[in-house]
Amino acid sequence: MRRKIIIPIVLVAAVIAVLVGVLVVPARGGAGTTTTAAVKQLPTLTPLELIGKVATTLPGTKAVHGQFEWTNGILGSSFQLPAEAPALLQKLWAGGSGEFWFQDGKLRLRAGNGTDQVTVAMNGTSVWVYDSTSNTATQYALPADTGTSASPSPGTNGFNLGNIGNLSQLMSAVNLSVTQGTVAGRDAYVLTVEPTATKTTLGSINVAFDSTTFVPLSVDIVDAGGTTVLHAAITSVDYTVIDAGLFDYTPPTDAKVVHATMKADPRNGATPPSMGTNGTTEPTATMQSLTVTGAQVTVGFPLLSLTSTMTDLPFQGAYVVAHKDQGSFAILRYGQGFGTVVLAEGKLTAAQQTQLLDALNATSLGTSMTLGSYTGTEVATPLVNAFIWTTTDGVFHVAAGPVPLTVLEPFVTNLK
């Protein structure tokens, strides 16, 4: 039952992120934008001023209605969802379009690709998810103790950019700039985020905000080669009051109806238990930075590390994550910002390793490869590359990061 609940929620979360999370538009001129010269001149804003405007103005927007579209190639053209994935998710993974309504913490949307559609309706007391491919409507009752009287705006519920995290750390890893354009017929500010690292797979992230409401309107993620690997955009938008009855949902008369209860209300920012608090399978982490030797003593088995310094990948520290079922893993970090490679090392049983590799092979992303003295599986995607292998002492290794294979492969071969 838990598996059946999680998949619709993940799908809903993904679509909501496309709608009102961080949506991007091509800053260099593309579908849905105009060139800067054709746009009404807006007051000039610096990147930090724009972020401040979003933080202060976005929460004042109480209602949003619009149409949207997305295309997704973030894992590359060869990626395939596992055969057991829901049929609708298979159809919507690469792209689609839809319409949404958001007001006072209530949401309704439909998204699809051709005749295959998903409908989501959240009215404050329950969430309906209707899948047209299976003609199934699932109603998730929200817990009674979550405080349904709150009326958050599109600027709350985790959509506020104030939740970005450590802004100073982000600023050191990227260059920020602001241009102007139009999205969905609205004058917009376009925030372009470009990594300072020279050897990275990421080219830029471009986010467009309505110049009046500062609601995010679109997002493009561009790889280092200039190809847009993820595009999501609101194509039409208005902010008029929405009829409250729209958020109530009645499934088709011939639909199979399933009832379930959510264990946490996503409207109120519910979070899972802290790491290591449940005493079962959740991980606990040693958050202080360790040397390789210190991490090795903690995990109790030999660790691989770089035998010679790589200029682009300076050692940044090691961390240890302990897991009740999988044991301890050491996490070694090399590089900076979007030019970082993370090396994870731990012991898995043969069955666990087989399960992981079988799941990876089902996606068609893995390729058998020998790098130096290590034979394993190389995973190449537009934004993240990885190499996975097991050494003769039974330690499982994963080296991964937003760096090109020309950086990752020498890194692996220099590990001893």
Written account of the structure:
This protein is of the alpha+beta class and 416 residues long. It folds into two domains: 2-268, outer membrane lipoprotein receptor (LolB), chain A; 284-413, Protein Transport Mog1p, Chain A (3-Layer(aba) Sandwich). It is 18% helix and 38% strand. It is built from seven helices and 20 strands. The strands form two sheets. Strands 7-8-9-10-11-1-2-3-4-5-6-12 form a twelve-stranded mixed sheet. Strands 13-14-15-16-20-19-18-17 form an eight-stranded antiparallel sheet, sandwiched between helices. A hairpin with a 2-residue loop joins strand 7 and strand 8 (186-195). It is globular, with a radius of gyration of 23 Å. Mean pLDDT is 81; it is low at 1-38, 146-151, 156-165 and 265-281.
Write the layout of secondary structure elements.
Layout: H1 2-21, H2 47-57, E1 63-72, H3 87-92, E2 95-103, E3 106-113, E4 116-122, E5 126-131, E6 136-141, H4 167-173, E7 174-183, E8 186-195, E9 202-210, E10 216-223, E11 228-238, E12 256-261, E13 284-290, H5 292-299, E14 315-323, E15 327-334, E16 341-347, H6 350-362, E17 366-371, E18 374-380, E19 385-390, E20 395-401, H7 405-413
Parallel strand pairs: 6-12
Antiparallel strand pairs: 1-2, 1-11, 2-3, 3-4, 4-5, 5-6, 7-8, 8-9, 9-10, 10-11, 13-14, 14-15, 15-16, 16-20, 17-18, 18-19, 19-20
